[in-house]
UniProtKB/TrEMBL annotation:
The lineage of its organism: Eukaryota, Metazoa, Chordata, Craniata, Vertebrata. It comes from Mus musculus (Mouse). The gene is Or51b4. PANTHER family: OLFACTORY RECEPTOR 51B4, OLFACTORY RECEPTOR 56B1-RELATED. Keywords: Cell membrane, G-protein coupled receptor, Membrane, Olfaction, Receptor, Sensory transduction, Transducer, Transmembrane, Transmembrane helix. InterPro entries: GPCR_Rhodpsn, GPCR_Rhodpsn_7TM, Olfact_rcpt, OR51/52/56-like. It is a multi-pass membrane protein. This is Olfactory receptor. Its main location: membrane.
Amino acid sequence: MWPNSSDAPFLLTGFLGLEMIHHWISIPFFVIYFSIILGNGTLLFIIWSDHSLHEPMYYFLAVLASMDLGMTLTTMPTVLGVLVLNQREIAQGACFIQSYFIHSLAIVESGVLLAMSYDRFVAICTPLHYNSILTNSRVMKMALGALLRGFVSIVPPIMPLFWFPYCHSHVLSHAFCLHQDVMKLACADITFNLIYPVVLVALTFFLDALIIIFSYVLILKTVMGIASGEERKKSLNTCVSHISCVLVFYITVIGLTFIHRFGKHAPHVVHITMSYVYFLFPPFMNPIIYSIKTKQIQRSVLRLLSKHSRT
């Protein structure tokens, strides 16, 4: 019989050994968080208000921006609470819910990137059938499918956390709650919680990445068959933004995975820094990438700025 579970809150951890300068470390976090909210919020507003952007690619981009905002708003309160107020305590229930949203939103984002690769595949490989294939109802079903997959698939490993007894140390490794961090504190059989995430990662992140790579192989094959060099360049340019976002997302996922699996002897600050890169870099970069590489969004931003300057 396991000892009775303690209802004591978990303790979040900032940058170990750098507690004296946490308030200075919080400054770049404030800047990055503000930039993420401003950038993704602006993208959502532009896509919603500009009817020329009411196309499948931009609908998926709006979902991506929403997931990035969700990830930021999920992690931001506890991170800033630790760095600014030294508020390290978090109730167990709040911790599990935060963990649920962190992991589910990451799976949703992977699914959205997969849907966006399908959009580019249809646009380049079967352009004449683009409107008949990617109808509004089909785009909505794809987005809903990505959301359901993310929010449902992460329930099985999160639910046991609510009834596990926690008789070990209640100190977590980060300033937010991760499933792999919390389950190690349980005094229970966590075999399922160890195996299920590995299978889930293989069936989501890994499989999504393989399908995206395969779709771009077909896209490249189609583009290489185009006679005009100018047309080839134009076709590939429509994919640059998506490819960049895919690389940013999956490189950070792979980096964090390698650190957790093989970096046990790496300094704690390396683990912490990599986790922040994973949560902050994609939401920070995605609106920048699309603003720089997508002419339609550039024109919408300029129209928005000129409109406000006139008023």
